[in-house]
Amino acid sequence: MHASVSVQKQEARINALEVEAASLEKELGQHEDADAIVKKHIKLLHKYNESKDATQILIGKLATLRETTVRQIHDDMDLRDCD
């Protein structure tokens, strides 16, 4: 059996969701295309990841040349794990 939800609670929930949607739409911009924003974001993430991968390759080569570890290069360059 499912617990019944009163009509008033359903209407209150619907109203709350509509207010939240309106707020988010205002923040985004009424005439902005969410799909276009997501596609642009994904494209930028790909560029970031490619740059980060290339950087890690160079750091690995530098570690080899200096006969040290990648971790030591990161420490020497003050690179954090989240970079």
UniProtKB/TrEMBL annotation:
<keyword id="KW-0234">DNA repair</keyword>
<dbReference type="GO" id="GO:0032798">
    <property type="term" value="C:Swi5-Sfr1 complex"/>
</dbReference>
<keyword id="KW-0227">DNA damage</keyword>
<comment type="similarity">
    <text>Belongs to the SWI5/SAE3 family.</text>
</comment>
<protein>
    <submittedName>
        <fullName>DNA repair protein</fullName>
    </submittedName>
</protein>
<dbReference type="InterPro" id="IPR010760">
    <property type="entry name" value="DNA-repair_Swi5"/>
</dbReference>
<dbReference type="GO" id="GO:0000709">
    <property type="term" value="P:meiotic joint molecule formation"/>
</dbReference>
<dbReference type="GO" id="GO:0034974">
    <property type="term" value="C:Swi5-Swi2 complex"/>
</dbReference>
<dbReference type="GO" id="GO:0010772">
    <property type="term" value="P:meiotic DNA recombinase assembly involved in reciprocal meiotic recombination"/>
</dbReference>
<dbReference type="Pfam" id="PF07061">
    <property type="entry name" value="Swi5"/>
</dbReference>
<keyword id="KW-0175">Coiled coil</keyword>
<feature type="coiled-coil region">
    <location>
        <begin position="7"/>
        <end position="34"/>
    </location>
</feature>
